[in-house]
């Protein structure tokens, strides 16, 4: 090696040193004091050891018209650390805003780095993982600065590649201004519950507004809460295993030792003896998935509907299940949004969807009407219609009204639909139907006596009409199933259905784009 | 002619004669007493004179009441057929309230569902003149076979052919999905109401008069956002439907025909500098601006009394049909409010589905939605409309009149151009900015943001830039050309001509949709 090469290596080494120093010792210490990892530490925690290949490390907050051009603060990477890595052997693209560099704010070059990384990921078909920790924007458009154009490019890229590659956002600090759109555009948001903050920029006054908790329980913009950066990153790794790397691949099958034919006696004990009472659907889920595992999303948002990922005989699926324990498992606008997001993702990536239904569907009332309950129900059934992935429905107990269409029941296009013998299909609750059809007779009995007897008799007769054991005598109608099954065989049936539909092909009428109700 | 033919023809004529009376003169009178028209009267108003060709006129009911009685039901309460509207063929379905309350039973549903299938196959719009008490309770009917849920059928053809519902009667429970799955809903103030269900459900099912305000046209226009147009009565509502059809093509495979106009495409609009104050704080009525610009001052506004901070309307420029989307400074507020995002989302999907260009008149004052909107999931609703904007391939033309702030709505109106707009013109008084937000995140969030962050770097993204400075650099990608206000109409017409043959390819994806925010 000669002096000439040595000289360059020395300069490269100095640049690397600057990069590793990030925003300086003080800022790094401050980051740790807040319980946060630095950008590089986060990438390190995510990536397989030694797999990180950095891109754009030489970039600085460079303004040729400023003296000095690089400004008076360190700006390694212009505050963005990014590149390629493998996660559990899988190629990904990853970026992390560096909070130690100008509080993680986005600069002109920094925003273009991220924009081009997302486009790169779209071309190379790599999942994108963004680690967001940024106090806002510092890019411009004056004198031709390219930052605003870069933000547009970034937002558009997340849209163009939505459904092509999975996009995961880790909210590990603040994320504000136009950049906040990137978090909301991601397929999944995992937030550090202590430090996460997401806000577009309008006025706020309440304690906790914009926090991770706020976005989980109120705004519905957060999927999982973690107690630390490390936990958030570990959750991202776990989530990734359920996903394919792009829409052109299948997600990995992860074999477990769990017997695909396992007959589960405990399933008979979950439902209470009185059909009026509730139970926790999580119990049923735990008894049928591989090893009882469920990676739940948006756990505290619209808990009346459970959504998440699970596996059946190693096959990853999206799971959607009403939870009678919460709000009686009704469907309403928030649960509709939660359902829609997951079902569209599942379909885009051709991941199977398994729905477990036990719900009285959409409740009437002025409160719900103003929230647009009709539009949201329509949104789900419009969405379900456009799914061409594998769809397996298991109906457990009540299947009334709108749920017969939005939860994937007969003639809505599920590949297979099974029902427990306890299932009741009805256009609305049997009680309401009794009132509707026999209101004259009941009014008379109220006056003349014998109301309760008459009501109970009529209700019993109507219930008998709507029992699946009666309705399933017809194969061709809306209110039926492919097969009434023993509850203990639920897992086995789901698995059989998934295997049978492995090579499925389904087409929809050609169109440019659908027109979704909401 | 032989005797058998004579008798057969007589029998045919008898059916036609009976059909004209529907459920009988008494019911027709009741309809009129309520200010409502009959199904056939409505079809007469919808169709160009003498163009209605009925299908299924010989259909009757195959149902029986619970007590075994068979009821007469001409056409099973559904009048179906084709007609011409403004010289173009459409399929029409009209529920006949005089026949058992227009209730749906098997033959009725089949007529609706299959006429929709035919319309979709032939590429002609579907118009539903809806006035139905819902499912025919207390009847059992023939078994259905080979037919999917009609809601699924509607959803499948969403975006294939225009589907419009004119609601001129009750629409309750599950029936409420029918209008919401359509592209547009017109409601008659006098007769239309829509309600998912409730204590009133029973009353509605038995055709009793109920309080008009619940779930009425104005309710759904102003509060739930489900209704697009309101007519004072049935006749006006149908006239609105005829007008709406002129702005839509026959199907997604065709372009909407241009209108004739005598309005000079080179007309300058001097009035604009009077209509739009050059002091940014002063509000003005954007509708007056639109009227001054478009052919013959004529437009059809959609959802005019909903989310009034945003205007969505159809209009023409030199005969070419476009969708105009603009802020309404007179209404105050922000175009990014959740309801505005939903309104824009619905409208833009229609434009892109049917190849209708988008014209944005941009004036986004530096006002962001606040905490109440954030709590509703502001960012994911903004993400929804950003997704449609970024992935639509119709010509997108923007004119910046006064202000364009990236975090206040400019991005979903084409500024910067990297969001996917084709041409951005700007008035000489225009100004641009990135963050209109005034929030000091050190106060609001704190936690590690540098003390001098605001002054040292965050301020770089706050503050306005006048159009001459913004347009000085092509690299900023925010303005293609500064124009004189009086030339706005001319320039829009020129832009539409330039982009008439636009063809844009998006990144390939496995399914027709991505995984957008909901």
Summarize the structure.
The complex is a heterodimer of chains A (518) and B (518). Helix content of chain A is 37%, strand content 17%.
Q: Please, could you describe this protein's structure?
A:
The complex is a heterodimer of chains A (about 525) and B (about 525). Chain A is of the alpha/beta class. Helix content of chain A is about 35%, strand content about 15%. In chain A, the strands form three sheets. In chain A, strands 10, 11, 12, 13, 14, 15, 16 and 17 form an eight-stranded mixed sheet that branches. A seven-stranded mixed sheet of chain A has the order 1-2-3-4-5-7-9, sandwiched between helices. A two-stranded parallel sheet of chain A has the order 6-8. In chain A, helix 11 links the parallel strand 12 (about 315-320) and strand 13. In chain A, helix 4 (about 110-125) runs parallel beside helix 5. The radius of gyration of chain A is 27 Å and the shape is elongated. Chain B is of the alpha/beta class and about 525 residues long. Chain B has 18 helices and 21 strands. Chain B has helices at about 5-20, 25-35, 40-45, 105-120, 150-155, 175-180, 200-205, 215-225, 235-245, 270-275, 285-295, 340-355, 370-375, 380-390, 440-445, 455, 465-470, 490-500, and strands at about 55, 65, 80-85, 90-95, 125-130, 140, 165, 170, 185-190, 195, 230, 300, 310-315, 320-325, 360, 395-400, 405, 425, 430-435, 465, 480. In chain B, helix 12 packs parallel to helix 14 (about 380-390). The longest helix of chain B has 19 residues, at about 5-20. Mean pLDDT of chain B is about 95; it is low at about 200-210. Chains A and B meet through helix 2, helix 5, helix 6, strand 8 and helix 7 of A and helix 5, helix 7, helix 8, helix 12 and helix 13 of B.
């Amino acid at each position: 090696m000669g002096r000439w090469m040595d000289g360059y290596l020395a300069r490269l080494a100095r640049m690397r040193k600057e990069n590793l120093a990030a925003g300086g010792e003080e800022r790094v210490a401050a980051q740790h004091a807040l319980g946060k990892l630095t950008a590089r530490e986060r990438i390190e925690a995510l990536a397989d050891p030694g797999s990180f290949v950095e891109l754009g490390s030489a970039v600085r907050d460079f303004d040729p018209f400023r003296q000095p051009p690089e400004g008076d603060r360190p700006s390694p990477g212009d505050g963005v650390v990014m590149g390629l890595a493998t996660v559990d052997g899988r190629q990904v693209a990853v970026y992390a805003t560096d909070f130690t560099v100008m509080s993680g704010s986005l600069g002109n070059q920094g925003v273009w780095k991220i924009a081009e990384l997302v486009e790169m990921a779209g071309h190379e078909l790599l999942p994108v993982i963004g680690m967001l920790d940024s106090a806002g924007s510092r890019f411009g458009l004056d004198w031709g600065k390219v930052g605003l154009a870069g933000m547009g490019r970034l937002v558009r890229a997340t849209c163009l590649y939505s459904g092509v590659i999975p996009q995961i956002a880790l909210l590990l600090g603040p994320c504000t201004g136009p950049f906040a759109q990137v978090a909301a555009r991601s397929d999944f948001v995992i937030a550090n519950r202590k430090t996460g903050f997401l806000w577009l920029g309008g006025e706020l006054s309440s304690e906790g507004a914009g926090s991770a908790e706020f976005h989980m329980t109120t705004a519905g913009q957060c999927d999982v809460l973690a107690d630390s950066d490390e936990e958030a990153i570990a959750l991202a790794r776990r989530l990734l295993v359920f996903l394919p790397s792009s829409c052109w691949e299948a997600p990995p099958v992860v074999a477990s030792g769990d017997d695909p034919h396992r007959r589960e006696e405990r399933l008979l004990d979950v439902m209470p003896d009185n059909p009026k009472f509730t139970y926790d659907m999580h119990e049923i889920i735990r008894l049928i998935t591989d090893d009882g595992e469920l990676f739940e999303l948006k756990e505290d948002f619209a808990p009346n509907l459970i959504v998440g990922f699970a596996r059946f005989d190693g096959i990853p699926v999206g799971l959607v299940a009403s939870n009678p324990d919460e709000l009686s498992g009704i469907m309403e606008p928030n649960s509709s949004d939660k359902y829609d997001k997951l079902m569209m993702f599942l379909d885009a990536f051709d991941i199977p969807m398994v729905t477990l239904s036990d719900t009285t569907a959409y409740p009437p009332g002025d409160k719900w009407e103003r929230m647009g309950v009709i539009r949201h129900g329509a949104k789900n059934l419009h969405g379900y219609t456009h799914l061409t992935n594998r769809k397996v429905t298991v109906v457990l107990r009540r299947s009334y009204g709108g749920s017969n269409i939005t939860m994937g029941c007969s003639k809505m296009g599920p590949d297979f639909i099974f029902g427990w013998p306890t299932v009741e299909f009805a256009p609305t609750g049997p009680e309401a139907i009794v009132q509707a059809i026999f209101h004259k007779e009941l009014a008379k009995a109220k006056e003349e006596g014998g109301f309760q007897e008459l009501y109970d008799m009529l209700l019993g007769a109507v219930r008998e009409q709507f029992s699946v054991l009666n309705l399933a005598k017809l194969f061709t109608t809306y209110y039926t199933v492919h097969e009434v099954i023993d509850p203990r065989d639920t897992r086995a049936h789901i698995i059989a259905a998934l295997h049978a539909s492995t090579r499925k092909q389904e087409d929809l009428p050609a169109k440019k784009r659908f027109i979704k109700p909401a | 002619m032989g005797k058998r033919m004579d008798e057969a023809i007589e029998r045919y004529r008898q059916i036609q004669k009976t059909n004209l009376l529907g459920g009988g003169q008494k019911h027709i009178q009741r309809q009129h007493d309520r200010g409502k028209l009959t199904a056939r009267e409505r079809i007469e108003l919808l169709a160009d004179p003498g163009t209605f060709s009925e299908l299924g006129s010989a259909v009757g009911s195959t149902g029986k009441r619970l007590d075994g009685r068979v009821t007469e039901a001409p056409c099973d309460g559904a009048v179906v057929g084709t007609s011409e509207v403004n010289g173009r063929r459409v399929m029409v379905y009209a529920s006949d309230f005089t026949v058992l309350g227009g209730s749906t039973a098997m033959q009725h549903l089949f007529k609706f569902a299959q006429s929709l299938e035919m319309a979709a196959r032939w590429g002609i719009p579907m118009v539903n003149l809806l006035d139905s008490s819902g499912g025919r309770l207390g009847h059992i009917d023939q078994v259905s076979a080979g037919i999917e849920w009609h809601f699924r059928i509607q959803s499948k053809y969403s975006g294939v052919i225009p589907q419009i519902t004119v609601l001129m009667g009750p629409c309750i429970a599950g029936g409420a999905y029918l209008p919401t799955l359509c592209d547009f809903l017109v409601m008659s103030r006098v007769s239309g109401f829509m309600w998912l269900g409730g204590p009133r459900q029973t009353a509605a099912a038995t055709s009793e008069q109920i309080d008009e305000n619940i779930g009425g046209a104005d309710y759904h226009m102003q509060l739930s956002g489900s209704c697009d147009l309101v007519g004072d009565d049935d006749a006006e509502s149908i006239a609105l439907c005829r007008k709406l059809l002129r702005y839509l093509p026959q199907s997604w495979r065709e372009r909407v025909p241009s209108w004739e106009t005598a309005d000079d495409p080179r007309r300058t609009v001097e009035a604009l500098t009077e209509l739009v104050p050059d002091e940014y704080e002063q509000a003005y009525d954007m509708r007056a601006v639109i009227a001054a610009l478009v052919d013959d001052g004529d437009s059809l506004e959609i959802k005019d009394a909903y989310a009034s901070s945003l205007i969505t309307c159809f209009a023409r420029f030199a005969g070419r049909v476009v969708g105009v989307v603009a802020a309404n400074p007179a209404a105050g507020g922000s175009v990014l409010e959740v309801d505005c995002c939903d309104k824009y989302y619905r409208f833009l999907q229609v434009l892109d589905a049917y190849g209708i260009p988008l014209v944005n008149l941009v004036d986004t004052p530096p006002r962001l939605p606040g905490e109440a909107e954030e709590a509703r999931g502001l960012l994911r609703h903004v993400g929804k409309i950003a997704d449609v904007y970024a992935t639509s391939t119709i010509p997108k033309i923007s004119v910046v009149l006064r202000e364009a702030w990236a975090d206040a709505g400019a991005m979903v109106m084409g500024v910067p151009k990297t969001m996917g707009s084709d041409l951005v013109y700007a008035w000489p008084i225009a100004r641009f900015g990135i963050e209109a937000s005034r929030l000091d995140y050190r106060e609001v969030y704190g936690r590690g943001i540098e003390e001098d962050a605001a002054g040292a770097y965050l301020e770089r993204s706050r503050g306005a830039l006048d159009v001459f400075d913004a347009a000085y650099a092509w690299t900023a990608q925010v303005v293609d050309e500064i124009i004189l206000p009086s030339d706005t109409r001319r320039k829009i017409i020129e832009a539409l001509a330039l982009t008439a043959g636009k063809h844009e390819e998006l990144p390939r994806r496995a399914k027709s949709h991505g995984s957008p925010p909901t």
